[in-house]
Amino acid sequence: MKYKSLKGVHDIYPPDIFIWQRIENISRDIFRNYGYREIRLPIIESTEIFTRSIGETTDIVEKEMYTFTDKGGRSVTLRPEGTASFIRSYVEHYLYNEPSPQKFYYMGPMFRYERPQSGRQRQFYQIGAEVIGAESAMMDAEVISMLSLILERIGLDNLSFEITSIGCPDCRPAYTAALKDYIREKIESFCDDCRRRFDINPLRLLDCKVPSCIKEREGSPAVIEHLCGGCGEHLESLKHHLRILGVSFVINPALVRGLDYYTKTAFEVKSMSSSGSQNAVAAGGRYDRMVKEFGGPDLPGIGFAIGMERIIQLARSLNDEFEGPDIFICSLGDDESAKALGLANRLRQKGVWAEVSHDKASLRSQMNRANRIGAKSVIVIGENELKCNTAKLKAMKSGESSDVSLSADDIATALNKLVG
RNA sequence: GUGAGUGUAGCUCAGCGGCAGAGCAUCUGACUGUGGCUCAGAGGGUCGCGGGUUCAAGCCCCGUCACUCACCCCA
Known about the structure:
This protein is an alpha+beta fold. The protein has helices spanning about 15-35, 45-55, 60-65, 85-90, 135-155, 170-185, 190-200, 210-215, 230-245, 290-295, 310-315, 335-350, 365-370, 385-390, 410-420; strands spanning about 35-40, 45, 65-70, 75-80, 100-110, 125-130, 160-165, 250, 265-270, 280-285, 300-305, 325-330, 355, 375-380, 390-395, 400-405. Helix 1 (about 15-35) packs antiparallel against helix 5 and helix 12 (about 335-350) packs across helix 15 (about 410-420). The protein is elongated and about 95 Å long. The two termini are about 45 Å apart. The model has no long low-confidence stretch (mean pLDDT about 90). The structure holds one RNA strand of 75 nucleotides.
């Protein structure tokens, strides 16, 4: 084999593509009911868009970005996530000059240079939603319940909605100080990574999975206990409204986001039934300072992203029916084949999925093919049918048939009656 | 970046020094004009790649690449 796709990037083709389309369609339907409009963003941006927003010291920026220099000498990057691009676009096009809040969604590929494994690719797809201009925790609750509806409609269950608040620039310094005070005394008992993180990004200590570290940090101060008045009320209000909306959730104070731009609400949806360790199917949070940092007005934002590959893994088992053609037209002889082709053409113009045989083949093998591709009905045009201008339309599943004239109108009507 | 496992037909895999195989899938026929069942046959291979050992290497050895899984981190 001469060419293969690159490591960590994959083709998506039938039958999997049907699951992708189903999930995209369900999402679009629900976004519409919640007033979200689609926005299509470039997959490539100035590197600075990401380094400034995601954070210079995050893993994404430090080692996972597809960054290169273009022919004009600019540093450009394949987007590792969607929010930064969205905010750039939002500010660039003055989208805040529309009734507030503004709600957008997008679907598309993201890129991170990592070692692939189950549920993790280098090119992976996200369905994202972003809301700008809503400060109230009611919006946080609405966004999370919309996410819940999407996942439920797709057919996923056994999901855990985990929620926390990571505070704001007012309360975070006090919390980090408290955390560092607690850890500092026993820093020697933590793993190398944790010791490194202690100075760079102490919140990350809470996410370490090394058993000894988990033990050592037991009893460490929790973020949600050090929230300022505003952040505390926001979290309480979110919990209240989630209960009103009937979304069950758990508070997970150890939830840490891999991006620096989050404030207040952060949440993650985990699959309890996923076999691999990549069990986060969607994640999001509030980013109240980001629009301003991108040179726009001081507007709050909140959003989430669904990991397509991860929900596909879970949804694959519940994939059901795939559609076959409405009618397969068999023909015997050149004149008959020409008739079949013309008929198929007219049927297609009327919205019927019609297939014909393009190669000379025995009726048996044509029937076989009709069966294999899942045709709902079949019609045979031979010498006799051509002469009388009538034929038998046969429903493949039931075996029932009815006589029709060889006109697209009659066939379409008969099809409706015979196979729906 | 670190560690482990696996590379043989389109797919799932067997073969473990001695002619490159099975099941499924595809195509054809048995059955001039009605599919699904059955039977027979056909097509399809750089045994990942390179080197070494051997009279002889999918098989053993070395290297390399790819894939998978896990760690790190994340969607």
